[in-house]
Design brief:
This protein is of the alpha+beta class. Helices cover about 15% and strands about 35% of the residues. The chain has a five-stranded antiparallel sheet, with helices on one face. The longest helix is centred in the N-terminal third of the chain and has 12 residues. It is globular.
Length: about 90
């Protein structure tokens, strides 16, 4: 694993070497208030490189992974806790 960089959520200083489809995924997360309803001004993205592919994580646990085999990006949202015992 290789450390990349960090930048602000909804920031304009994204790394230039990300695949285009990853940029589209970042745009989707940053512009959809249903995905990140509690987004704070202090949230940041963290980029690491795993086996040469970018993995980007937001402070809330949202992860974007690049899938090189089909040049796609996978967005994985964090799990939400359930407080209602009847749902179990």
């Amino acid at each position: 694993m290789q450390l990349g960089t960090r930048w602000p959520f909804r920031g304009t200083d994204r790394p230039a070497n990300l695949p285009e489809v990853v940029g589209f995924a970042l745009d989707a997360v940053e512009t959809d208030d249903e995905i990140t309803p509690d987004a704070g001004a202090d949230w940041r993205w963290t980029l690491t490189w795993l086996e040469g592919k970018p993995v980007i994580e937001l402070d809330d646990g949202t992860v974007i992974r690049y899938v090189a085999e089909d040049d796609s990006a996978q967005i994985v949202l964090p799990a939400k806790s359930v407080d209602d015992e009847d749902d179990w």
